[in-house]
């Protein structure tokens, strides 16, 4: 070996040896990128899931609290149009009145067809619960308590399936996170505390170094997962309920009360109009 070859070999060796004297593995930076991508994805999933729960809770509470007022408004509008049509005897007024009344009529025969499982407004809550294993009890608030939100985030970061490297461990985490999500959707801090204790007593995940090709595949999967979550988040934000939530991101429960107050005012106005027409 010539002197220049020896110098080149020594130089190459020096490039592979850090100042501390330890050898640097080729996959080390790739592993760091994977860990960073995993952490970022989990935080993104937590944000999407918490927003999804708020959208779902807002939708259910919106229907529960405001549905009767919307129904009352539609009934008053139909009656007002019917009186106006009777007085004017105008075909256009009659058409508008008939359309308004038709919107209030349930779909004929639906309840008999579904053997009592649903009516014109959709599945009964008990039927939905049986089909989806979801609780019948509606949420108390749009946004779960701060304690529940903190417990949920901590559990999601520790037990997220994306941290699993083996199929068996991933299945265990998926089953556990499903229960965590259900408890959070119910806003139950007590259930989440119990789940935290259960996880703390369970087996710890043992990570093993991954070959470079597996790390590249992992990064690609994480990127695809992020794209899917971005689409889910966009759909949530652009939905009717998501758009309403953006009007009051800090107090969604207060937004429901504001809408209810506006509806009560509209109902009072329609009732006064109907009374005047009936005189």
Automatic annotation (TrEMBL):
Q: Which CDD domains match?
A: DnaJ
The record, for InterPro entries, names: DnaJ_domain, J_dom_sf
Under what name is this protein listed? J domain-containing protein
Region span, Disordered: 1-32
